[in-house]
Every structure is written in C-alpha cells, then in structure tokens.
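Final report, Chapter 2: Outcomes

The project's central promise was a pipeline that accepts a single protein chain and returns its three-dimensional structure in a standardized token representation, suitable for archiving and comparison. That pipeline is now operational. To close this chapter, we reproduce one record exactly as it appears in the project archive, with the input sequence first and the structure output second.
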Amino acid sequence: MKKCLLLAILLNFNFILVAQTYKADSAMLKRISNHVLTNYQCYNDLHDLCKNIGHRISGSPQAEEAVKWGKEVMDKLGCDRVFLQEVMVPHWVRGEAKGSILTSKGKRMSVEISSLGNAIGTGAKGITAPLIKINHIDDLKRMNPADVKGKIVFYNFKFDQTNVNTFESYGPCVYYRWGAPSEAAKLGAIGVVIRSVSSAFDDKPHTGSISYDKKYPSIPAVAISNLDADRLEQLMEVERNLSFDMTTTCQMLPDVLSYNVVGEIRGSEHPEEIICFGGHLDSWDIGEGAHDDGAGVVQAIEVLRTFKQLGIRPKRTIRAILFMNEENGLRGAKRYAELAEQNNEYHILAIESDAGGATPFGFSMTMEKEKREKVKLWSNLLLPYGLYSFDREGGGADVGPLNRKFKTPVMELMPDSQRYFDMHHSANDVFENVHRRELSLGAIAMTQMVYLVSMYGL
C-alpha cells in the first residue's frame, strides 16, 4: 500500500513538473514570436542586403561586400564570437546573351535568353544551328547521333503543375539544366536551349547551375522563359525547319578567395554541443537573391538577435552560418564540414533555410527515428505558430556535408512553395516580392526550434 502511494505521489509530481515546463516553454515561444513580429528587423536586414548590395554571385565584388555586411551585422549583436572561414570559390561571369529564332523563310524573332551558370560561352561570333525538340531525355537517347550532330537541342520538359508541393516538380526538371546538356553533347549537339525550371507563367528566363560531364565536349547552354518555350513549341508544330541563333560571352575565371561568415553564442551548460543554422549568402547574378537565399541569411541572423535581445542563454552552443557559394559549387558548405572535422566539433543539429521567405508550415528532417520523435513531441508547442508538418525527409544542400560526413541530424524550414519557383533563379527574385510578416514567421520558427533544441538537446 505504501509503495502504491509513493508511486502515485511520484507520478503526480512528474505530471506537475511536465506541466510547469510546458507552460514555461509556451510562454518563451510566445515571447520570441511577439518580439520578432513587433520589430521586423530581419525584413530591414533583407532590404539592406538586396538594395545596397544586390545580387551576389560567388567571386563577384558584390559577394565580397556581402561578406563584410554579414560580419558587421553579427558583430553588432554582441555574439560571443563572430568569425570568417576562408574558402576558394569559382568565379563565373555571365557577360552578354542574345538569342533569336530563325524560320526557313529568313524571319528572325528575338527571344530573351539566360546563360546557365558555369556554362561556357559561344564567343563573340555566336552559333546558329537547326533546332530539334526533345520532350524527355529518353527520346534523345533513342536518337541516331547523325540526327543530333551539329544541331541545337531544345529541351521542352515541363514543370509538373499538378504537385501542390512544388519542390516535387523541381527535382525532375532540374536534371535538364544540370546534366542533360552533356547528354546532348554526347550525341554531337553544339548547343542547348532549355525550358526554364520554373512554375512561372511569364517572360522571365531562369538560370541555375550546369554540370558538364568531362567525357564529352562542353557546349553553350541557355534557358528561355515558359511563355517563350510555349511559343517555340507551337511554332515547331507548324514550322519544322527552325534554327536558333545565340551569342553568349559568359566565362569561368580563376577561383577567388571568399568566406563563410559565422556568429556564435556559447552554451552555458553543454558548450561542446553545437546547433548550427543558416542560409547561403551568395545568389545568382540576376534579380537580388531575396528569396534565394537572402531570406535564409536574415532569418539565421534574427535567431541570434532574438536570443541576445531577450536575454536567452542557451544551454548548448548556437551558431549562425552565412554560407558562401551554394549556387554554383557548394564550396562553403564543404569547407565548413572540413573545418568541423579538423576542429573536432560536435554538431547535434544543423538547420537550413533555403526555400524562400514565405509562410512556414514545418520542418523536413533527416535523422534517426528517436530524434525525429523527440522533435515531434514539441508539435503542440509549435502548432499555434502554424507549424504542423514534421514527417518529410530533407535537410538542405548546405547542411548536407555535415550529414554525410558525421551523420549529423539535419532539418530544413518548409515555407509555402506556391510562388517560390515563379521567382527562383530569375529577375523576379527581388526584395519587393518578399512579404514582411511571412519572412518574420520563418525567423520565428527557426528561433523557436533552436531554442527548444538548445535547452533539451536532441
């Protein structure tokens, strides 16, 4: 009887303790949310980054200015440590690009083109060749090389508009930008035009990296907008002898010294356990890199700012990282993981924000089941802030090297994706297309997750 009474007392005590802890955490998450939503400093930071520096392709003067900007902003927060990590990055220069469609009767129709990142140029004289349309890579692989040699391949693979999560459509499309140009070169093509990897219904072409297979010649590759691709597709149905003329002066220059920017607040009880979070400081050289990934950069900074301004002392070390060169090399992320190994650092979690600044609805995660279940125990605390999804796999490109090298648990903030690929890698990705409140909700979600993990581990 005494044992039963003692057990009942202990269970009641534990219930009270859990209830008190939940109440305290709930109050802190509300303080975090109220603070960010009444200050909007991350939005001001994004304006500064986009309007005073602009696009920031790695190796450019703007990327260099962005590094200085990031360090200055985090120095002002009063972090325990702000430092730079040296990394050599590629220096690709876009140059000029002109394109036009030629009919068999000599009619010329200009079309806006955008060179794919890391692509070679045509040279000042340009290239002109007959067009062949390929709707799927398997169609090209079945062709006779003689029918491809000396031609320009038009990849007409379309973004699947039926997926509500537009990232599910991006994956299949991105191959045509990343790897398919070398498949065309393998059969003797001299150039490639792709339908933009985009959900947009407009005249803006979208850029992004190409990766040449060194076994085959490197050939010029450009993107056209979805509307221009629709027009070209329709024209090729009635005019079978179309040619394409393009002149691009892009080129790859020698690598340039650049930096990751890191800001840190040291843990009060377990400083050896590191929680890192961030976005990439570089962007493509069209637009302003507002959603991709100025949003992730300023959200990461806002986590540190909120901890400092609210006087929150994390039990574990928290670290914001502004990665360099995600877009056309991933050099910054790889360097961060290399230095983590050299310095014997132990990361218990790495979070990335690189899916835009829209309203968040959860986090994707790649980690052991037990850790995932621990995160999901916090779902009732996070639900009032619109965060309900914690079941998708994922983690983001810049935290990938930590996961591959150390099996570090990784997360990525998941914002609503409906408009993201309208702007992604295009001239549409500007500050004006980021909503102040939505951006701040992402910063809140990041800060709340970092708070919980910093207090209770993973």
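Archive annotation: Residues 2-39 form the longest helix (38 residues).
This record, like all others produced under the grant, will remain available to the consortium after the project formally closes.
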